């Protein structure tokens, strides 16, 4: 049973990833931490709590950590994800943020459960870098780490060379990869699995695919119009409509890249991919390459590996799994009053 530490900045594609993970009965959330990025950390927490309610996972603890990047100024993305992070959708929850500082909570959980926890970071790496400062043994203590971030042999989506999560806090990303490079003797499977734009932008969710979720969930028996299943599907529809509109406005067409879903599915062994072991570094000096990720695939620098970089994947397989997961979840929570 995967035991997950999730750090996100919810975010429409983060929301899809969270709902997908919550749909897996075998997945246990040990903690969700909120990193500022797409929206402020407080907005991330609100979105996480509301989505967990819709998924019937109110028991999952949600923690706040950093409120700013390590050194950079916080920049949010209302043009991409809407003013509150989930597009045209709104969520509400009677739950509350758990007591505790997210980086300390991650460190404590890893110490208490060595080799058992899978960390997934679909946000800037601020909280994870701070957790490493508290517990430098995290590379050894965690069972795995999966990161959505970086652009290696692909145009950036923030600057010509950079991907949003890494560009938002390149100093944190630099610290994380440096920590794994410095940690000698790690087995390959403990190196971070890095899902960059090369592979996440292959996950192009089309509106006709998303429309099948409600159709399939309502067959053969219609959902309760006042149940959580109906509310969940409406939230996803309203969020994705904004995301489709954003991608169309910026020249991609009426579709959406669901970066964080692929990374999350890969993290729990639910998406097929191939990866290569390499050294990854992040540019933190000012200039046009600020925030760029550099993978030394030929080992020209002779440095120790710090990551496993995903090089190929199978979106058709992934979307089939996403559809069945959301349909099953909507049916399961259907009779819970919204």
Structure description:
β2, α2 (41-54) and β3 form a beta-alpha-beta unit. The protein is of the alpha/beta class. The chain has helices at 12-22, 41-54, 78-81, 102-112, 126-134, 138-141, 164-168, 170-182, 197-200, 207-217, 228-249, 259-267, 315-332; strands at 3-8, 28-34, 62-64, 117-121, 144-148, 193-195, 204-205, 256-257, 273-278, 280-282, 293-295, 307-313. The mean pLDDT is 96. It has a single domain (3-205, 251-332), classed as Ribonucleoside hydrolase-like (Inosine-uridine Nucleoside N-ribohydrolase, Chain A), CATH 3.90.245. An eight-stranded mixed sheet has the order 3-2-1-4-5-6-12-9, with helices on both faces. A two-stranded antiparallel ribbon has the order 7-8. The protein has 13 helices and twelve strands. The two termini are 29 Å apart.
Give a brief outline of the structure.
The chain is an alpha/beta fold. It contains 13 helices and 12 strands. An 8-stranded mixed sheet has the order 3-2-1-4-5-6-12-9, with helices on both faces.
Question: Any key phrases for this structure?
Answer:
338 residues; 8-stranded mixed β-sheet; alpha/beta; Inosine-uridine Nucleoside N-ribohydrolase, Chain A; 12 strands; globular
**Integer count of domains:** 1
Mean pLDDT score, rounded? 96
Strand order of the largest sheet: 3-2-1-4-5-6-12-9
Q: Which structural category do the helix and sheet elements fall into?
A: alpha/beta
- Tell me the quaternary state: single chain
What's the architecture, going by CATH? Alpha-Beta Complex
* CATH topology title: Inosine-uridine Nucleoside N-ribohydrolase, Chain A
Helical percent range?
A: 25-40%
CATH superfamily: Ribonucleoside hydrolase-like
Basic shape? globular
Distance between the ends: 29 Å
Report on the biggest sheet: 8 strands, mixed
Query: Helix and strand succession?
Result: EHEHEHHEHHEHHEHEHHEHEEEEH
- Uncertain runs are none
* Separate helix tally: 13
Strand content: 15-25%
- Radius of gyration, in Å, reads 19 Å
């Amino acid at each position: 049973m995967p035991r997950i530490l999730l750090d996100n900045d919810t975010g429409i594609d983060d929301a899809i990833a969270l709902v997908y993970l919550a749909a897996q009965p075998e997945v246990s959330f040990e903690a969700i931490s909120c990193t500022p990025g797409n929206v402020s950390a407080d907005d991330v927490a609100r979105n996480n709590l509301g989505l967990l309610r819709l998924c019937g996972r109110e028991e999952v603890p949600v923690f706040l950590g950093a409120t700013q990047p390590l050194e950079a100024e916080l920049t949010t993305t209302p043009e991409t994800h809407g003013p509150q992070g989930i597009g045209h959708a709104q969520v509400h929850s009677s739950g509350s943020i758990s007591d505790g500082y997210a980086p300390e909570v991650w460190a404590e959980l890893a110490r208490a459960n060595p080799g058992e926890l899978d960390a997934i970071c679909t946000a800037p790496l601020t909280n994870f870098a701070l957790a490493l400062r508290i517990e430098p043994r995290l590379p050894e203590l965690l069972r795995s780490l999966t990161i959505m971030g970086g652009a290696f042999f692909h145009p950036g989506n923030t600057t010509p060379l950079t991907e949003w999560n890494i560009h938002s806090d390149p100093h944190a990303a630099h610290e994380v990869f440096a920590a794994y490079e410095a940690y000698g003797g790690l087995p390959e499977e403990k190196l971070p699995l890095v899902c960059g734009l090369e592979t996440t932008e292959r996950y192009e969710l089309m509106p006709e695919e998303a429309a099948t979720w409600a159709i399939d969930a309502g067959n053969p028996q219609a959902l309760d119009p006042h149940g959580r299943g109906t509310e969940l599907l409406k939230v996803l529809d309203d969020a994705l409509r904004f995301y489709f509109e954003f991608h169309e406005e910026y020249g991609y067409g009426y579709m959406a890249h669901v970066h964080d879903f692929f990374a999350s599915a890969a993290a729990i062994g639910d998406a097929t991919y191939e990866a290569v072991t390499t050294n990854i570094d992040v540019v933190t000096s000012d200039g046009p390459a600020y925030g760029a990720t550099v993978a030394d695939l030929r080992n020209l620098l002779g440095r120790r590996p710090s990551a496993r970089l995903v090089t190929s994947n199978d979106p058709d397989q992934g979307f089939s799994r996403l559809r069945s997961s959301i349909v099953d979840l909507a049916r399961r929570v259907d009779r819970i009053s919204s």
